[in-house]
Amino acid sequence: MYAMKRMSLLALLISLVLLVAACGNSSNKSNTATDNSNASANSSASSNNAVASEDSTASESEATFRTLTDVMGHEVQVPTHPKRIIAPFMEDPLAALNLKPVAQWGAGGVPQHYLQDQLKDIPVLDMNGGLKPEEALSYKPDLIIFLAPTYIADGSYEQFAKIAPTFVLSEDEADWRGNMQKLGALLNEEDAAKQALDSYDQKLATAKATLGTLPANKTAVVLQADEEKGFALFGPNFYGGATLYGALGFKQPAVLKGEYEQYSIEALAELKDVDYIFLITGEGRGKPPVNNTLWKSLSAVKAGHVFDADSGHWFNANPIANDLIISDVLKDIHE
Q1: Which of 17, 75, 85, 124 is the most buried (most CB within 10 A)?
Q2: What is the pLDDT of residues 54-107, one digit of tens each?
């Protein structure tokens, strides 16, 4: 009897030990599963963070450069917000966008005077023979812009492209409005470009309202004199001529042919009935043949209707220059 009780007690103790062991294993498995789950979550989080970081880096890269194709078919990595621009003879539209190039166009070391309120501290490029790669390199540009293919010497594009992203803007250098819009898009300044064009359009509308029907009934020329050697006339698509004829609507004389044609001194006789002469003036510009009988016989000369036209902006076609040309016409001509 005693032996049976002892065996029953022993069996009970063994059962309790097995039960405790089983509970312990279950707890360990649970802890292991929890640990594995946590590890998996941490690993997943780390992976997600890595992907997010890569996406962020890619996004930052995309925000820094854009791949754009210029008119010559070059795919160019253009900085989204360039800081050191070289764009010879596009300083006017750049200034209209409230941007400054790192160096500016000049003729014989002389910049465009009418822009110097905005660009007075900007170095002047030596443009004799066109922009030179070694000079461009010295200014460490982050973007080089050429207005049209004609502004680049044959075979030199690759040299500039090695210095900085180089973009050729337009096939039509005379399309100043379209080129202004293209420049705004290239530089991420579309709103500023639109504002500049809107401002010009308002100035033109006011000028046309002020002049009324006068331009439609009056003949005008933009004349570059060379003393007794002859003269040149601006055509309807040549710089200030485009503003005078195309925008303001003045009549052209019958003698006017082409866009920038040279005429002999004897051809002055064909300007006899022209109402207004805008005479190109400025550094290095020729003087009119004031003592020549043909010059003295012109109606515009007799009436005192020969007006100075500063070569800086009359030899240009861009928002600021065109605005100044309109101001000159309003100052000089009245109904």
Answers
A1: 85
A2: 444 444 445 799 999 999 999 999 999 999 999 999 999 999 999 999 999 998
